[in-house]
Design a protein that fits this description.
Number of strands: 12
Radius of gyration: 22 Å
Order of helices and strands: EEEHHEEHHHHHEHEEHHEEEHHHHHE
Largest sheet: 6 strands, mixed
Length: 405
Amino acid sequence: MKLETLSNGIRVVIVPLKGLRSVTIEVTVKIGAKYESKDEQGMSHFLEHLAFKGTRKRSGAMDIFREMDGKGVGYNAQTGYENTSYSITTVRDNLAWGVGMMADILFESTMPEEEVMKERGVIIEEIRMYKDNPMMGMGSEMVKFMYGGSKIGCWNILGEEEDIVKVDREKIVEFRNKYLNTQEMVVTLAGDVKLEDIDLVKDLFEGGVSEGGMVPEVEVRLSESVVKEMKREVEQGHFVMAVPTFGWLDKRKHALRLLNIIMTGNASSRLFEEIRTKRGWAYYVFSAGESWRETGFWAVQAGVQQENLLEAMTVVEKEMINFALTVSNEEIERAKTYLRGKITLNLDDSEFWSGYIGEKLLLEGELVNPEEELRKTETVTLEEVRELAKSVFVANKIRRLVISR
């Protein structure tokens, strides 16, 4: 790997991966929902939606889409709580073109008023889609429930309909200018690349200057409420049960990763087995936790028959409270093996590398190899997992969010 900082503050990482024919160009910026003020809710996500809607070189969305589709590339943009990323995955022959495209949409986006107005409708339909599908939207509902009282931060990445209908071009341009800052931007090239390809990024990104300010410090406030019930016309009952944990700087994160795998991480996990395999109560049972710099939470989400809703939550609570006493070294070792298999497979994916490296460097300021992180997890002991479970799986800390008729 090679890391260099350009004159305008952009950090560039080159990650050559032998044997891969793909290359991913990814730009990660420190713009996210966690930093939004109350009158900016949903703006980070809205800005991401406008990335491919037209630039000074490419007049409209269809010009960009046709150009990318004509090359058969994969492209994506996604907004999180702490960062936003834009990526193109293609082959080496298209590398120069792809880097140029990413620079164009980052620094030359025009965001026409008519595109902003159209995208209002798209995002509102996206919000409604999540509300219509509890399986997709309950994770965000739990985040709002637990941390929505914080003074700063939009704890629903999409925002609410009443926020989105107020967005116009002036507001979105003001937001971009406020926060788009080359000092808080990482460009990663991963896959079939060479170290000297950093010169290509210099040529196309060093001229880009954005002088937005730093994102604000966020004081995350945990709600004192522990139960929230929402009534909707649904066939299933859906629930999320969560406990507060800690931020991604905490060294216990490696033990939490193993705990999560054992509890909800795969088809042989405890809660999948108890709720779906043994009882046949649910189609889906999965982890719904989050981790940020300041704090985090572990959570499980499931959809069950209405008549089994309370009993299913009782099963989950029992597993949580008894976990420290019942977790075994065999389960720990099996979770480590599972994690190694998953990460090893991901190492053949240029998108995994670009996303992992870019986010770690942007948020934590470190150039970290995912295999190094894996080795840290593999040193976790049974006692460390037990101590973690004792501290987080406490009955009066458990939050419940329920959707039912």
